[in-house]
Amino acid sequence: LLCLSKEGKDIKADPLIKVFAATDPPENLSISPSLKDTKSTIDKIRQHIFDSCKSFVRWMRFSCIQVPKQEVKDEDGDEVPYSFLNDVAEVPEVMKTLWYVQNGVNRTTDLLDKVEKRYKKFFWLWREERNSVVDKFAKKSPTCLQYDEKMRQYAKVEPKASKLPEELQVGFLTVSYVSVISDIKERAKSWVQAYGRNLRDSGMSIAQAVHDRIASYRDELSKNPETLEDLKALLNTITIVLDSTNEIELMIDDCSERYRTLEEFDVTVADGEAQMVESLGSEWDRLIELAKETGRNSAKIRRKFAKVTQDQVTAFVDESTELLTQIRESGPANPELELDDAVVKHEEFDTILVAKRQTREQLVLAQKLFGLEITPTPDFKKCEDIMEHLGRVLGLYKEFKEAEAGWSGTLFFGELDMDVLNTGVEEFVHKSKKLPKDVKKYPAYDKTVATIEGFQGSLPLITDLKSDVLANCQTSSQ
After folding, report:
1. Could you give the count of Cα atoms lying within 13 Å of 372 in the half-sphere of its Cβ?
2. What is the pTM of this model?
């Protein structure tokens, strides 16, 4: 203890007590036995040394004859042994030494606080809840590089912690930090493993997606086409496989890099996972070869179905001409039809047109698929134009009839709001005038305008009738 004082700075002494440090997250270190217990032990040792003076008897002056028993009392009147203790207690050197001892204990406490800072700088590992932090990070769909940066941040802790001394002499104590260093390493490793588990899950998800796509493409390529639709599906699969090469290779590289990172940081993966990821590249190469071979073998079948497609296109052209005739003669473009009948016909032929449009799109795709020249269908285009133009006219007519029904729903003339009627009719007149010229050439347009203007022309009569009704009501009331 004297070596801790300035007076004893050149004195070398072995520590008196060995204690063991342990982590007490998130901010503290605990010492066992505690500093309080060690201080109490030192106080007892010091007091025992001091009290040992009581065992030395006093001699008579200038002789070796023991002094007879003396009756000595303390301040409380209690009898105490008559010994050298009182004399020793008054010696300045003794009192100074006792002060040095106490000061040495206090300095040990201060030194211990400074030493602990070297270990506490790693306690940031406990300041955040690990699982919530890692899960929040995973929700951002981080790249492999971002995972690598996070895991490397924690992996660097272990070699740094290994350089910390496992045992230190701090004043009168020997402090063992073996448990603290072990906890720091384990905590850092747990962070690495936590990030590693999410990295492994993301890598496995990518690997499974690639594996499923390869299996699906392989099944599609193994089918023997019996119909044109089957051939289209097969050729489409071949095109998708060949066009997906860059995408799939990037996915495989990303997956391989994730598992390489897992291996670097010693993260445990299930048996067979790494082998499956490693085999994805060769599986994809075999699928590419299968797609190319299937494409070469399908040439004869393609020629057969190319002729079928051309025949279907010819038939579609004839059907389009027939449909155009039907729209003009018995459909909504027939000038003899009443507007209400034209609305019904338009809905019927619109359903037919939607189906025909889908057929045309499929034929265009088939022509592109077999390298055929796209056959124009002018009559079908005329059908679309006529139906579109009539749709705008008849749509305006339907809207007007719905408004007219609403106005007619008023039970009493007295409740009619003529301003609303006039404004509503003027809006429909304005809409009819704003229709394109191509729309105005159809008889249905003239009929629609006539219907709107006819209603508009009846508004003055409705106004007079309303006035008469109101006048009669007033007379009856009087």
Report:
1. 23
2. 0.59
